[in-house]
């Protein structure tokens, strides 16, 4: 009656038995052929949940080790030589100029057109990404079509003096329009206040990430002002 009720199952069992008898397939479907890691095991005693019955037998759970307190000044504290990773120690420092470096062109204020001023990006949502026609921002390293700053320092090189509107405002509290109309404006890297990840790594400091929201939470409208206040607090304590 079993074969009449389940004809497909019987046929499947026949195919399975025939396949197991093929050369090279002996024991491939036996329980012993599965890896030991795939077999079900009871979890380690230390990883089991501490239930009420377990407390009656083994006593209360042991307290967790105290976690180390985070350094509130880690963003402004320089790394020591022992804190650098092997990759950071082996990475050669980038040269200031090279054969592939873009030439730095200082544009006078008279050349800045009203169209360029109107093309300044106010928010991140206004950015238009274009790998071919876009220009790179030194801070976010995104290639967009909006107008960037122009460093008036003759010793500046490449495109490191280019900053987009949101980055210059959120990271340094400055405006691209005012920078373009200032004939003596120097970019943050030339002033030694750049807080991008690359420049901070060269100075032995960690990257800040998206820090503008934390800076505004503490009452600062830009990252540079917040980091400056932390540095002053650290110097007062030392």
TrEMBL record:
GO terms for cellular component: cytoplasm; nucleus. GO terms for biological process: regulation of DNA-templated transcription. Coiled coil: none annotated. This is Cell division cycle associated 7. Residues 130-227 form the Zinc-finger domain. It is found in: Cytoplasm; Nucleus. Residues 33-72 are annotated as: Disordered. Its main location: cytoplasm. Keywords: Cytoplasm, Isopeptide bond, Nucleus, Phosphoprotein, Signal, Transcription, Transcription regulation, Ubl conjugation. It comes from the Eukaryota. Residues 1-17 form the signal peptide. InterPro entries: CDCA7/CDA7L, Znf-4CXXC_R1.
């Amino acid at each position: 009656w079993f074969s009449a009720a389940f004809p497909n199952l019987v046929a499947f069992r026949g195919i399975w038995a025939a396949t197991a008898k093929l050369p090279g397939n002996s024991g491939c479907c036996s329980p012993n052929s599965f890896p030991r890691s795939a077999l079900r095991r009871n979890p380690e005693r230390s990883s089991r949940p501490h239930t009420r019955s377990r407390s009656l037998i083994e006593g209360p759970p042991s307290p967790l080790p105290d976690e180390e307190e985070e350094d509130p000044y880690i963003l402004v504290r320089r790394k020591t030589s022992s804190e650098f990773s092997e990759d950071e120690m082996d990475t050669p420092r980038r040269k200031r100029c090279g054969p592939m470096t873009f030439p730095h062109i200082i544009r006078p204020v008279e050349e800045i057109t009203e169209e360029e001023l109107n093309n300044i990006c106010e928010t991140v949502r206004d950015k238009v990404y274009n790998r071919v026609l876009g220009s790179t921002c030194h801070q976010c390293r995104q290639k967009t079509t909006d107008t960037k700053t122009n460093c008036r320092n003759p010793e500046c090189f490449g495109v490191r003096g280019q900053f987009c509107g949101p980055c210059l405002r959120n990271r340094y509290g400055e405006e691209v329009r005012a920078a373009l109309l200032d004939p003596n404006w120097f970019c943050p890297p030339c002033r030694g206040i750049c807080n991008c990840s690359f420049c901070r790594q060269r100075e032995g400091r960690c990257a800040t990430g998206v820090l503008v929201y934390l800076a505004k939470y503490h009452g600062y409208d830009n990252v540079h002002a917040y980091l400056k206040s932390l540095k002053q607090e650290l110097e007062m304590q030392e």
